[in-house]
Specification:
The complex is a heterodimer of chains A (277) and B (215).
Chain A lengths: L1 H5 L3 H84 L9 H29 L2 H6 L1 H15 L3 E6 L8 H22 L3 E9 L2 E8 L6 H9 L4 H12 L3 E6 L6 E8 L7
Parallel strand pairs in A: 1-2
Antiparallel strand pairs in A: 2-3, 3-5, 4-5
Helix pairs in contact in A: 2-3, 2-8, 5-6, 6-8
Chain B lengths: L1 H19 L6 H22 L1 H5 L1 H23 L3 H24 L7 H24 L10 H25 L1 H6 L2 H26 L9
Helix pairs in contact in B: 1-2, 1-9, 2-4, 4-5, 4-6, 5-6, 6-7, 7-9
The chains are: A alpha+beta (277), B mainly alpha (215).
């Protein structure tokens, strides 16, 4: 203001007015241009993120569908190749001619048929248990995992053990099923690919986090390998693990133990709202 | 010629509002519509009545007060952040009080440049607040798809253009009158930009993906 009062000549006032107005307009236009371009950049970035997420969802969905189809094929194969012939054989023993045979032969045929039917019942029970273990529903995650590990140890191929340190209260049934499937998938991968001689599972809680750790001494993968396999077309089981954990907002982490002798898989889940009603 | 230009520049946005916005629009744009009607009526009063011709500086002072009220209402409605709304709710009455006191104390034989300068600076600050809020809000639409953006742009361009004119008017009113064409041209440009805002409103409401809150 003092400056303007000193500059009293018309020319100076005109100059100040001219430059002042031009300056203000330039600032205004600069501000608008900056805001417009900044916002376009942000929106473009958001679209890119959205697209990446959609692609990821699509990949996980495809993996899930493929896995489902494989499971169905396996069940169909089990029923067709195992249960089908057994029942057909049982039927052969129980044909109409049985009444024409002597009593001993009749008894023998009935006994054979009964034995085959028993085997078929056991086979179907095994198929059913592998689909949905009743132990999980009736006794919880700890019992189901114990059962699973006992079966693995019982086969003699490796030493499998598990220990639940802090599982006093059961989780919700649907969450227990998801965690069990994740453990099943991880264990299957170890059995198929790692050539391990032992596998050990531990369960802990820390604060509001639920941890499952699986150690094995075979050939494992690291987190970088996991991410690479996840992006590729192979690694269906790993994609399945990831999509299941996404439901529980959980994470999985693959690493080599600090002693560099074991591979470790850590599954981390939030414990809140997880308790059974 | 000035008067004719003024009538035309106020009529066009009023007509466009009635065509594109009368059926469906936001409260913010209604405020701008009433402001335009008020400005149009003001111009007619000034041009046609003897009172208007004889007391133009007094009327301009009153016009400044009413213009500030309209624009403050517009910014209050357009801004969504509660803290910014609170700032306007508290700040505007204080500024308005200052403008009224300045008008009462001013020499009625000259244009009250002090009030006008304070009004300009205040509205420039409100415009910057609006843009600041828009940058920080997460949104999926471009900022220029919103009618409010164009209204704020118009107000900002007008106030930026005339700020130095009004400041000069405090020192030397005669010099300010010499360059009054800056005010007329800025007014004309602002009204054109308001027209764009009203036309944008039609597209904003016809696209179902556009949320009302993004205005």
């Amino acid at each position: 203001m003092v400056l303007l009062q000193v500059l009293s000549s018309d020319d100076r006032i005109s100059t100040v007015l001219f430059f002042g107005t031009i300056g203000m307009l330039a600032l205004t236009i600069g501000l608008i241009v900056f805001i417009t371009f900044h916002q376009r950049k942000v929106i473009r970035y958001q679209h890119q993120l959205q697209k990446m997420e959609q692609d990821q969802q699509k990949t996980l969905l495809n993996a899930s569908i493929r896995l489902q189809e494989e499971e169905r094929q396996r069940i169909a194969a089990d029923l067709h190749d195992d249960a089908g012939p057994l029942l057909a054989t049982a039927r052969l023993y129980l044909n109409e001619n049985l009444v024409n045979l002597d009593k001993t032969t009749q008894l023998q045929s009935i006994y054979n048929a009964k034995s085959i039917i028993d085997d078929t019942i056991q086979l179907i029970r095994n198929i059913s248990h592998s689909l949905m273990p009743p132990t999980l529903k009736n006794f919880g995650l700890e019992s189901a995992v114990n059962d699973l590990f006992q079966k693995i140890s019982g086969s003699g191929s490796m030493n499998a053990s598990c220990r639940f340190h802090d599982y006093r209260e059961r989780l919700k049934p649907e969450n227990e099923l998801i965690i069990f499937r994740v453990i099943q998938e991880l264990v299957n991968n170890i059995l198929k690919h790692s050539n391990a001689s032992f596998i050990h599972l531990t369960q802990n809680t820390s604060g509001n986090k639920f941890f499952i750790r699986i150690h094995h001494d075979g050939r494992g993968i690291t987190q970088a390998d996991f991410e690479k396999l996840n992006k590729s077309n192979v690694g269906l089981g790993l994609k399945n693990i990831q999509s299941r954990l996404k439901v529980l907002q959980g994470k999985v982490f693959f690493e080599k133990d600090m002693s560099q002798t074991y591979y470790k898989v850590t599954v981390e889940l939030a414990k809140d709202d997880d308790k059974t009603d | 010629m000035d008067r004719l230009l003024s009538f035309i520049t106020y009529s066009i946005p009023i007509i466009l509002f009635l065509v594109f916005c009368a059926k469906k629009t936001t409260r913010a744009l209604w405020v701008i519509f009433f402001y335009l009607l008020f400005s149009f009526a003001f111009d007619i009063l000034q041009a046609s009545s003897s009172f208007g011709k004889g007391n133009k500086h007094e009327i301009w002072g009153l016009y400044t007060i009413c213009e500030f009220v309209f624009f403050a209402c517009f910014y209050y409605i357009a801004l969504e952040s509660p803290s910014l709304k609170r700032f306007i709710l508290i700040g505007s009455p204080l500024i308005l009080l200052f403008i009224i006191i300045s008008y009462i104390k001013s020499d009625k034989n000259d244009f009250d440049s002090t009030s006008a300068s304070v009004e300009s600076i205040t509205l420039i600050i409100f415009s910057i607040m609006y843009f600041f809020e828009q940058i920080n809000r997460p949104q999926t639409l471009f900022i220029y798809s919103s009618p409010n953006f164009w209204v704020v742009l118009g107000i900002l361009i007008y106030m930026s253009s005339v700020l130095f004119l009004f400041i000069i008017g405090i020192i030397s009113p005669k010099q300010a009158y010499k360059y009054w064409i800056i005010n007329n041209v800025s007014n004309f440009i602002t009204n054109i930009i308001f027209c764009i805002a009203f036309v944008r409103n039609k597209y904003a409401f016809s696209d179902p993906s556009l949320e009302k809150s993004s205005f």
